[in-house]
Amino acid sequence: MSKNEQQYLDLCRYILEEGRRKEDRTGTGTISIFGYQMRFDLQEGFPLLTTKRIPFRLIVSELLWFLKGDTNLRYLLQHNNHIWDEWGFQKWVESAEYNGPDMTDFGIRSQQDEEFNKVYQEQLAIYQEKVLQDDDFAQKFGDLGNVYGKQWRSWEGADGEVYDQIQYIIDEIKRNPDSRRLLCNAWSASEIKNQQLPPCHYAFQFYVANGKLSCMFNMRSNDVFLGLPFNIASYALLTHLIAHECGLEVGELIYTGADVHIYSNHIEQVEKQLLREPRELPSLKLNEQVKSVFDFSMNDIELVGYHPHGPIKAPVAV
After folding, report:
1. Which positions does UniProt annotate for (6R)-5,10-methylene-5,6,7,8-tetrahydrofolate binding (predicted)?
2. 136-180 per-position pLDDT tens digit
């Protein structure tokens, strides 16, 4: 049994047994704990859950989107990635330019009302097509504000300068691998009002020892059932990509979460997942011909030996 996956399952059990009921911004309600850490040995295998199928290509396209410094949904939609759609859709339906059916609290209503869900899906499809085809619309309503890509690649400092935090980390690893400043921060107090969703994984730091690259990422808020499996795999992939460019092996991935929660409408799904036995972890294969983190495409990243249990669907809280 994979220790990497077992500790995630142990976290789920711990929240169900010890967590506190809390209300939240979405109105859904959670079972929550405060403060938790897990350590994943990346030499053991790529930490993608096997107790339910996780769509790895969505993780890849989202990370490449971040690394491009992009904040517009068009790139994701072009790669059939819809994990951010609801936040862009919310921006449109709450604007003065929207004149369709009432979409107030669409996230909750679409789960509770089958007829409303049909109308919601129709409007969402219209939104997606507009982002893909209409440049003006995409600029207004496809852009999510100064979210991860902007902060990672174009951080604006109080001095008026723009900083590429990812490039800095790569350069610093190559020239000074013992540095304690291999840090990227996505949380900017002055930018929160300009972000459709403030960063949940707000900072990460790298560490080089014995020819291996390790990463610790920090989360202020974490949806354990839907979000955390993506977050773990995404930062594992980022660690592999940077290690690849810097000529290093991969070491540990360390997760530190603050408000770590299971949504009240995910409990049944979590309990179902906990009945499943973990399987052997897959491995990651990168195109050796690609030298720079920023030059990777979808076709340059391959998951090998992934044989999970079937998917378990659950609604996203918006």
Report:
1. 223, 317
2. 999 999 999 889 999 999 998 888 899 999 999 999 999 999 999
Indicate if the alpha-carbon torsion angle 20, 21, 24, 26 is positive or negative. Answer: positive
Residue closest to 238 by CA, chosen among 186, 301, 180, 193: 301
Distance CA 218, CA 203 (A): 5
- Annotated binding site for dUMP: which residue ranges? 25, 180-181, 220-223, 231, 261-263
Number of domains present in the structure of the chain = 1
Span between the terminal Cα atoms of the chain, in Å: 34
In this structure, what CATH number is given to the domain that contains residue 221? 3.30.572.10
> 259 phi and psi, to 5 degrees?
-85, 100
Active site residue 200: yes
pTM summary value: 0.94
Q: Residue 203 domain-assigned?
A: yes
- Spatial distance between the Cα atoms of 166 and 147, rounded to a whole number of angstroms: 15
Long-range contacts from 302-308, C-beta under 8 angstroms, 24+ separation: 303/46, 303/48, 303/56, 305/280, 306/48, 306/50, 306/56, 306/282, 307/50, 307/279, 307/280, 307/282, 308/48, 308/49, 308/50, 308/51, 308/52, 308/53, 308/54, 308/279
Question: Which parts are annotated binding residues?
Answer: 25, 180-181, 220-223, 231, 261-263, 317
